[in-house]
Amino acid sequence: MRVSRKNLLAILGLVMVPLILLSAALIIMAKDREGSAVAPCIFLIGLSVVELLVGSLALLRWQRDHLSRPFKQLQQAAGEIRDGNLDHELDEAEEDEFRRLFESFEEMRLRLKNSAEEQLRTEQDGKILLANISHDLKTPITAIKGYVEGLRDGVASTPEKQARYLSTIYSKAEEMEKLVDQLYFYTLVESGRIPYHFIRIPAHAYFSDCRWELKEELDAQDMVTRYENRVPEDVMIAVDPEQLHRVVSNVVSNAVKYRDRSKEKNMIGFRIYMEGKTIVTEIEDNGVGIAPEDLPHVFDRFYRADTARSASTGGNGIGLSIVQKIMEDHGGRAVLTSVKGEGSCMRLELPVYEENDNEPDTDRGRR
Ligand SMILES: Nc1ncnc2c1ncn2[C@@H]1O[C@H](COP(=O)(O)OP(=O)(O)O)[C@@H](O)[C@H]1O
Ligand SMILES: [Mg+2]
Q1: pTM
Q2: Closest CA to 326 of 269, 268, 254, 245
Q3: Do residues 308 and 318 make contact, with C-beta atoms less than 8 angstroms apart?
Q4: Ligand nearest to the CA of 132
């Protein structure tokens, strides 16, 4: 424990004063040849003993008060935390010895407070998501019921009409499947249990496959696709193909969802290239774009820009938070740039896998 200057002075005073008095008594005695100074010497010795006694008592008392005040403050603060009040702030300790302890206590309180708030936020977010998804599920369910009734009651009288009804039912069921999948995946993200299975694969071929898998959906939406893959064929990445596909398809579905219908052509461009030891995948669109005030928040859970909320596009604002989480778990990152009215560009960065890297840890995501 550090001794404060005040304490040092008090201790010095307590020791020095009797020492000086005793020394004075000794000097007087040494010089005294006639024995006439015995009485003053005894007085000085007595005085130093009394000073020592009184001083020690005073020091003990001062020390007790000095210690008991911060202890009382700490006791009260701990009691507040026990009773669930995480807002009770400890004043800064006046005594040097307690400053560090008070600071650590405050840090502990703030951490507890943050984690309690985070837990509350997560619970609320979960409830919002559940409410949104339950609401979004109602639309396809109502549609499916309507079309099934149409089939049952013979409204779809011709084979063509029946086929159309069936295909609508199928696409509505797919819509529901996507929603349920999103909800399920969100619970995995929240509990930190994304089931990753990392493997080594060639980057060029992976993104090329991705592009073909998405082609049908993009063509169906009348999106003009541009694709450029400049990564050499032997460059490897260590990824979970399924989860990385989730990233790409989330970004692509945003490009489709937030396209600018006033434009003659809606485009989506894929550019995959290397930048040092990083594989960069840029997915660019010429959609409605994002306002500068919304851009810093789009990766936040449940954040949807005004334009997205007002347009009836569907969605719950978790897509990009999942994108970011998966990219980070792959040792990479996702960066979005956008100009309102012109379009957006998502930049996905992944580290190149090198021979001397550790074998990909298949269960990296299970934490
Ligand atoms: N390509 C894009 N063009 C325009 N806005 C976008 C684009 N991608 C994302 N956004 C904005 O970011 C928000 C968050 O995206 P996301 O997390 O995928 O949620 P959701 O798609 O469910 O709304 C969207 O609501 C939208 O406002
Ligand atoms: Mg989305």
Answers
A1: 0.69
A2: 245
A3: no
A4: 1
Correct CATH for 125-190 of 3.40.1190.10, 2.20.28.120, 1.10.287.130, 2.60.120.560: 1.10.287.130
Q: What is the rounded CA–CA span in Å between residue 237 and residue 330?
A: 10
The residue type at 294: D
CA 222 / ligand 2 centre spacing (Å) = 19
Residues with CB under 6 A from ligand 1: 254-255, 257-258, 285, 287-290, 298, 303-305, 308, 315-320, 344
Instruction: Please state, in angstroms and rounded to a whole number, the distance separating the CA atoms of residues 145 and 151.
Output: 10
Q: How confident is the model at residue 77 (pLDDT cuts 50, 70, 90)?
A: very high
Q: Domain 199-351: which topology?
A: Heat Shock Protein 90 (3.30.565)
As a whole number of angstroms, the distance between CA 348 and CA 48 comes to 81
Tell me the pLDDT tens digit for each residue of 128-173: 888 888 888 888 999 999 999 999 999 988 999 999 999 999 999 9
Bridge-based pairing state of the strands 266-275 and 236-239? unpaired
**Ligand 1 atom showing the smallest separation from residue 309 Cα:** 25
